[in-house]
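Help needed: design a sequence for this.
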């Protein structure tokens, strides 16, 4: 594998992960965000993820496993197994992270974050720190998905990276708002939010170096099938519910359809 390919994949993963910093900067505005725009953008990201998972990643996994096994039925069975194992993995991660402070992917309005007393500020700080930790854990498999996608197909990697970057913006908001209102420091809020996104390239590199010696058609197919499952779960469990919460129902659906259409056209152009 060429060094330039690895560096390109790593660059995309860093871009996707550090989009949490964009969310942090948005949180410092007078209005936390344009919620209709955010709703449409999150729906768009979900559409890209769902389309690329089912149409591209799932099929690439199946073809790799067919090359490895020589059996269409075995390849499809293994792809389905990998797909649902990916869903189970990300669901377990979602279950194990601290939920006492709410879903780490939910964005909070600034008005919810008043800081009337020291106890309130302490609770806000604790919530922000736990949210940053939860997001860092969630970002490990996302980083691996972006990295492997870029190694297999640069166009596919770019699409995944853009979708995950959009998805990471409200995560940055979720970290920075409580920390900023607890400490009064924009710098601390930004850096905690920024750091939570660093786990994405770290996860990509760790996963790659662990899997590198085992990478062949069989393992690549299984891992890619799992990546498809992870992305579908993120879209249905996190992106769409958040999109509908912060905007009209139809806006998130319009965004989803637009994401699918743009993803389909971009894949068609690169065929």
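Sure. Designed sequence:
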């Amino acid at each position: 594998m060429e060094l330039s390919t690895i560096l390109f994949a790593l660059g995309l993963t860093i871009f996707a992960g550090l989009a949490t910093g964009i969310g942090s900067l948005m949180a410092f505005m007078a209005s936390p965000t344009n919620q209709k725009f955010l709703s449409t953008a999150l729906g768009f990201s979900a559409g890209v993820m769902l389309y690329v998972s089912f149409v591209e990643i799932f099929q690439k996994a199946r073809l790799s496993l067919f090359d490895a096994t020589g059996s269409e039925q075995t390849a499809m069975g293994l792809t389905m197994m990998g797909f649902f194992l990916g869903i189970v993995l990300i669901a377990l991660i979602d279950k194990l992270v601290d939920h006492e402070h709410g879903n780490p992917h939910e964005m909070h309005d600034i008005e919810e974050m008043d800081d009337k007393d020291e106890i309130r500020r302490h609770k806000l700080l604790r919530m922000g720190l736990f949210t940053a930790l939860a997001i860092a854990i969630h970002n490990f498999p996302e980083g691996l998905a972006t990295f492997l996608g870029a190694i297999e197909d640069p166009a596919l990697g770019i699409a995944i990276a853009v979708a995950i970057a959009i998805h990471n913006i409200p995560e940055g908001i979720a970290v920075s708002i409580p920390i900023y209102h607890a400490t009064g420091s924009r710098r601390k809020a930004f850096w905690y939010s920024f750091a939570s996104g660093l786990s994405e390239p770290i996860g990509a590199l760790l996963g790659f170096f662990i899997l590198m010696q085992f990478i062949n058609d069989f393992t690549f197919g299984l891992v890619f099938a799992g990546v498809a499952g992870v992305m579908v779960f993120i879209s249905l469990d996190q992106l769409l519910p958040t999109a509908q919460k912060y905007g009209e129902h139809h806006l998130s659906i319009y965004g989803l359809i637009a994401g699918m259409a743009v993803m389909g056209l971009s894949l068609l152009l690169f065929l």
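The longest helix spans residues 35-69.
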